[in-house]
Amino acid sequence: MEQNLITELSIPGTKRVYYGSGIGNDLLLIDDFADFPLPTEPRRAKCIIVGLCLQGTATYSVYTEEFAVKENDILMIHEGQVLENSKISSDFKGLGFMLSYDFFHEIIKGIHELSSLFVFSRSHPVFSLTAKEAVAMTEAFNQLKHRVDDQDHHFRSDAVRSHMATMVYDLSNAIYRFQQNNPEKLTRAEVIFKSFIKLVEENFRTERRVSWYGEQMCITPKYLSETVKLVSHRTPNEWIDHYVTLEIRVMLKNSAMSIKEIGQCLNFPNQSFLGKYFKEHVGMSPSRYRKS
Questions:
Q1: Ramachandran region of residue 12, left (φ > 0), alpha (ψ -120 to 50) or beta?
Q2: What backbone torsions phi and psi does residue 40 show, to the nearest 5 degrees?
Q3: How are strands ordered across the β-sheet holding 73-77?
Q4: What phi-psi label fits residue 64: left (phi over 0), alpha (psi between -120 and 50 degrees) or beta?
Q5: pTM of the entire structure?
Q6: Which residue has the higher pLDDT, 227 or 80?
Q7: In the beta sheet, which residues pair with residue 73?
Q8: Could you tell me if 238 and 266 are in contact, meaning their C-beta atoms sit under 8 angstroms apart?
Q9: Distance between CA atoms of residues 236 and 10, nearest Å
Q10: Helical packing angle, 210-217 and 188-203, nearest 10°
Q11: In the predicted model, is pLDDT for residue 199 greater than 50?
């Protein structure tokens, strides 16, 4: 396989040149990074990429900063980061997965500490697992692949999501341990982003104004927008909309509430407004999404 065929570091873009088990554009498994079409030119990630090195070494750069990976190391590339200069040793073996941001946030929905840990991993993208953890992660990956490939399982997507949640908890535990052993302070921008996400998680059902969040944090909406975009490559409005649409999707799929009742619960002025908002962000009406 030509290593320079990948033109977009996203799940849909990667699927054009790499065949792997997956679920739509939410999850793509990488059985062996030695066969993965690593980009030779700078590419901006449009998803989360997680890899585990099982053997050999690798190097890559994010925004010109080089990172080295060795056996039992986890590497993480976040949405919006620019990957380049990827190189692996001739004996390299590794596995991993690509995960859409929406799917990731469905998994960690409402668990603020996990969000904070993954914010930390943006600036500390390589950390080591213990030998025991590496074995457990490999076994979990194999089990995940089995669940993804089980097309006859009626609850396949839910089973995969549940399994992924366990893997994310295990990754977060390793990030937490690394953070405790490397008590480097968060930057001012990372602190602001962390506080903003916590506020959004607590208030998105009733507040969708960036100015309101700025007031709570005693900073201007402009400064909040610039800082959040710098850290996450998403605007505050995009984050707020993400949490709102995710909540609507969950309520449509997992409750018997009418669309009108969902709108009232999430502080929409009327059902029509909710319908237009949802279609703008999801691409279909609430009723069609509920039936799909």
A1: alpha
A2: -95, -15
A3: 22-23, 27-30, 93-99, 48-55, 73-77, 126-128
A4: left
A5: 0.70
A6: 227
A7: 128
A8: no
A9: 22
A10: 120
A11: yes
What single-letter amino acid sits at 204?
F
- Residue with the two structure tokens 């600036």: 123
Q: Which residue has the tokens 């959040």?
A: 228
Burial of 195 (0-12, 13-18, 19+ CB in 10 A): middle
Distance CA 15, CA 6 (A): 9
Structural tokens at position 171:
């990754």
Give the chain as a 3 state SS string.
Answer: CCCCCCCCCCHHHHHCCCCCCEECCCEEEECCHHHCCCCCCCEECCCEEEEEEEECCEEEEECCEEEEECCCEEEEECCCCEEEEEEECCCCEEEEEEECHHHHHHHHCCCHHHHHHHHHHHHCCEEECCHHHHHHHHHHHHHHHHHHHCCCCCCHHHHHHHHHHHHHHHHHHHHHHHHHHCCCCCCHHHHHHHHHHHHHHHHCCCCCCHHHHHHHHCCCHHHHHHHHHHHHCCCHHHHHHHHHHHHHHHHHHHCCCCHHHHHHHCCCCCHHHHHHHHHHHHCCCHHHHHHC
Region 129-154: what's the mean pLDDT? Answer: 94
- Helical axes 210-217 vs 221-232, angle rounded to 10°: 100
Mean pLDDT (the chain, rounded)? 87
Which amino acid, residue 87? Answer: K
Average pLDDT over residues 132-137: 95
**Other C-beta atoms lying within 10 Å of the C-beta of residue 2:** 8
∠ CA 174-178-181, nearest 5°, is 140
CB 97 within 8 Å of CB 28: yes
How sure is the predictor about 221, in pLDDT bands with cuts at 50, 70 and 90?
A: very high
CB atoms within 10 A of CB 120: 21
